[in-house]
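Much of what follows relies on a compact textual record of a protein's fold. The record below shows the convention in full:
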Amino acid sequence: RMDVIGLLGPLRRYARSLTRDETQAEDLVQDTLVRAYERHGSFRYGGNLRGWLLSILHNTFIDGRRRHTAEARRLEQAA
């Protein structure tokens, strides 16, 4: 069983440090928890849940940044 409630504080703090925006940080944490739920089978029992979740959060942030950059490029090329 994954108990993430106690890790919401650190997840929110890290998300705020990455996004510099409260609303985007909350969205990032929510996206992270959805990804973690979808991939819970990849978590090793007894592993470091905090580290695993922070890693997912970081990767989710990077993926979003890449998606945003690619979209901006496409719009620039279309103009």
The two ends are 50 Å apart (CA to CA). Residues 49-78 form the longest helix (30 residues).
